[in-house]
Amino acid sequence: MARLPALLALALTLALGTVTASAAEGPSPAPGAPPGLRDVVVVGNSADGTVSFLDSRTFENLGALDVAADLDEILAGMDPIRRAAYEVVRQQAGGDKFVDDAHLSPDGRTLYASRGNLGDAAAYDIATGRQLWRTHLDGLKADHAALSPDGRTFVVSAITAAKAQTLDTATGRITGSFATGTYPHENVHSPDGGRIYNMSIGVTSLPKALNGLKGSKQVTVADAATLKVLRTHTFDRGVRPAVITPDERTIYAQLSYLNGFIEYDLVAGRTVRTVEMPFSAAGAALKPDDYPQNSAHHGMAMNGAGDKLCMAGTIDDYTAVVARPGLTTDGFVHYPPGALPYWTVTAPGGDHCFVTLSHRDEVSVVDYRTAKEVARVAVGDYPQRERAGRVAEDALPGLTRR
Fold first, then answer.
1. Which tens digit of pLDDT belongs to each residue from 214-225?
2. Which SS3 state, helix, strand or coil, does residue 125 take?
3. What confidence tens digit (pLDDT) does each residue in 380-394 have?
4. Counting beta carbons within 10 angstroms of the beta carbon of residue 270, is it exposed (0 to 12), middle (13 to 18) or buried (19 or more)?
5. CA neighbor of 84 nearest in space, from 19, 139, 8
6. What is the CA radius of gyration of the chain?
7. How much is the pLDDT for 32?
8. Element at 75 (helix H, strand E)
9. Which DSSP symbol is given to 330?
């Protein structure tokens, strides 16, 4: 199955879509977890299908939860057409990608995951590891997800179906959807939870020279209650990780092929500034079509004070801390060649940026104030997406220690 003829693979890819990587989010929750809850960053280890829990203050790896234990059962239940399509998506993803995104419930007892190549979403009881529900999404690939502030709705990009779907977190039932651009990627809620911002990246399997055929690359803004699309912002390149300011007037976004980021005025509907970041020698030597899933830089977060941005220089093997509003660089943290920094998130407390190093199976912790690395933590195989949250202390024994 894995060796489909090239023409069949290409046809399925164009018809059904490919996978993507990373994105980012705004300021993290206020410091100080309530009694019984611990501030953590959860890290999706995409290739081995586990989620690591990192203490956001001590940086200790508290353990991991297996969210792909039912893999053999799922594969055995696929019909030949579905299995062939699964193998194509797997090939385009560069191998097994079982965890695309993961979020913690407000009470810290449930983990919700979008499961990449499996094309579904699932919920898990952290204390026991038991799967509570599993829901297959439209299409073949489950991409980035977001949890509503009240914890009742899980929003997942059904990337090959060009829509974002909403699920009831209590039951896993699909409650609605809204149309997006081509290959929807990141989902971000507005600070008040009233709107969902969805970013689409276009067909990543096509070369840069065929950018016009990649489809609609846009930010779609939908009402979180009615799922009615309120407005769209169109771009000439795919919209990758992005951070939206609390007043919803500005978005900072990384774009496909751009070794840097843009500042975009959401009110005026125009790009205000384009910031080009320095190439490393290895990054400069790459052709754009060799960038991972069209991404030069992929990973963006904002600190709790709202005056610093944390950028993952994916092809350049560094993290950059950038000050706003001037957008000047405070400093860089450089990694060994090929580390593949692929996502950033601000930890609870707002002072540290956690950066996944996908090819090293590590997370780099960067201090926003000094732009220095303060810790390096070993996690699972191919870490990608990270999210800040809180876990119930009495659920921690359910995790598997390294």
1. 999 999 999 999
2. strand
3. 999 999 999 999 999
4. exposed
5. 8
6. 19
7. 67
8. helix 71-76
9. E
